[in-house]
Amino acid sequence: MRNKATSLSWIEFLITRLVKASGYSAIVFVGLIFFFLMGEGLPALAETSLSSLLSTRWYPIEGYYGLLPLIGGSLVVTLGATLVAVPVGIGTAVFISEIAPRWLREILKPLVEVLGGFPSVVLGFLGVLVLSPFLREFLGLPTGLTALAGSLLLGGIAIPTVVSVAEDALDAVPRSYRDAALALGATQWQTIWRVTLPAARSGVLTAVMLGVGRAIGETMAVMMVTGNAPVLRLGLEALFMPTRTMTATIAAEMGEVANGSEHYHVLFLIGIALFLISLAINVTASALVFRQHKRSERILS
Amino acid sequence: MNKIVIENLTLHYSDGTESLKNISLNIAANAITVLLGPAGGGKSSLLRVLNRLNDLADVEEVSGRVLLDEVDILDPKTDVIALRRRVGMVFARPVVLPFSIRGNLTYGLELAGERDPVVLEEAVERSLQQAALWDEVKDRLNDPAVALSGGQQQRLCLARSLVLKPEVILLDEPTSGLDPISTGKVETSLEELKKQYTIVLVPHSIQQAARTADYAAFFLQGELIEFAVGKDLFVKPRDKRTQDYIEGRFG
After folding, report:
1. Which is more confidently placed, A26 or A294?
2. Is the pLDDT of residue A92 over 50?
3. I need a labelling partner for B114 at 20 to 30 A (CA). Which of A68, A73, A160, B150 fits?
4. Are A35 and A89 found together in one domain?
5. How many independent structural domains does chain A possess?
6. Domain check: are A291 and A245 in the same one?
7. Residue B137 pLDDT > 70, yes or no?
8. Which residue of chain A has the CA closest to B51?
9. Which residues, 6+ apart, have CB-to-CB distance to B49 below 8 Å?
10. Is there a contact between B63 and B8 (Cβ–Cβ < 8 Å)?
């Protein structure tokens, strides 16, 4: 009897420790990655002058390490992708959760999730073979491999993420909210726009941020369709010209640099910049969500 | 005078859960009609037919007629939005919308196209007075409505349906989450409101039914067992099942 109790408490002890260890290890790994990134990237700041890094020319073979065209390329492509993914994604989520009949919802929801797991290289193929020739002919461009192609493709890749998360958020809005609005004489559209969407606001915002995160971190597909030209362009023409994102630069050049060289360190510096950008997006998102939580907590207390 | 006449109403949900079996019932104007019975008896379903809120649920079959001022509201050509403005509803759990107190009240009017701030302000005060909430909130109409206590929220929901000047008010266990004092306040306002409105109430207890009923209907598993005037149903029920229920032998 006594023995059994002891062995049970041992198992209990072991399991608690295991769970704790896996929790802490996640933090440790992220920390290690962070320090590695810093250790490899920060020397670039000492080796390369700041004016070189902030110039508009990226030509590593001759020692030009201007980051602006890459950052610009990433911004243009990500912004374009966001403009595609957010309205379409939220619209689809509203359709699936609020309008579609039950049988259609049960088909669409898993379908969207399958699309979300599609390997991006395959989508990149589609981009190269279908999307970019179409854009070239349709818009009369010298090449279809442009920031626009990247935006559309990335938008498409981010849509399932946005739909899936936003739909969960809308689904979690209590039915009673909709009933209350309808009972007041709201139409279905008015209910969605003024009651359901605002009530699901924090979840929808999370969906948008995850979508943006997916777009900015995507590498393969975007490298295949944007034309790989690290040139800084301002104005609307940036959308219709080849460009190159930060992720694509790292992926394309990392295999060919000498370990520990200036070029190598600058590539890691780009990694740091990417890390900071996605950190900023996440912090903004959680700050927005957190502020709302705090407001409602204050009210409820 | 009968405000609502229900004739041979039958309703089935597609998952076969709750249903109404051949219900015929007259609901008098300017009175409180109480629908009582154990859960699953069809009371809420009946309420939701009266303002067509069932439209979005999976209803397999509805037959019969529901006449509001002698017009059949089950007619597919009925303007459902207009109907819901005439037939207001208060739910079991207070559902305040994520706006301010004033915003909750003006929302329905704004949906109806009312923009005049004077009219809106008047409607806000009138409805809050009617729901016995005005004195408690008049100084903080711009505060978020979720800041109110449960009892206040429920009276706000009552005020929100009154703001549209409906003809009929449906209340689905409006006091089930409230303390006795708030319950008393709601019941007092209902007594006052029935002078102007037709009220259909699903009470949350037999005691509340007995306190408030001008007319009472007893439902059991989708059937209307007994319908009586005033307190008769509670004092001398005709049906054995009604008697068993109000004496607490089941349900």
Report:
1. A26
2. yes
3. B150
4. no
5. 2
6. yes
7. yes
8. A183
9. B9, B11, B20, B62, B66, B74
10. yes
- Please state the ipTM of this predicted complex: 0.78
Same domain, A107 and A15: no
Contacts 24+ apart (CB under 8 A), B137-145: B137/B101, B140/B101, B141/B100, B141/B101, B141/B102, B142/B100, B142/B101, B142/B102, B143/B100, B143/B101, B144/A295, B144/A299, B144/B98, B144/B99, B144/B100, B144/B101, B145/B96, B145/B97, B145/B98, B145/B99, B145/B100, B145/B101, B145/B103, B145/B104
Selected residue of B45, B107, B148 to mutate for chain A interface (largest A Cβ count, 10 A): B107
Q: How many residues does chain B have?
A: 251
Round to whole Å and give the CA distance between A250 and A218: 12
Write down the pLDDT at residue A301: 40
Q: What is the CATH number of domain B2-246?
A: 3.40.50.300
Name the residue facing B111 among A186, A199, A300 (closest C-beta): A186
CB A177 within 8 A of CB A196: yes
The pLDDT, as a whole number, for residue B215 is 92
- Which of A179, A184, A202 would you mutate first to test chain B, the one with the most B CBs within 10 A? A184
Cα B222 vs. chain centroid, distance in angstroms?
A: 18
**Does one domain contain both A123 and A202?**
yes
Residue numbers of the domain that contains A34: 2-41
Query: Do A246 and A156 have their domain in common?
Result: yes
Q: What is the mean pLDDT of residues B28-54?
A: 87
What's the mean pLDDT in B10-19? 75
- For residue A71, give the H/E element and its range: helix A68-94
For chain B, the average pLDDT equals 86
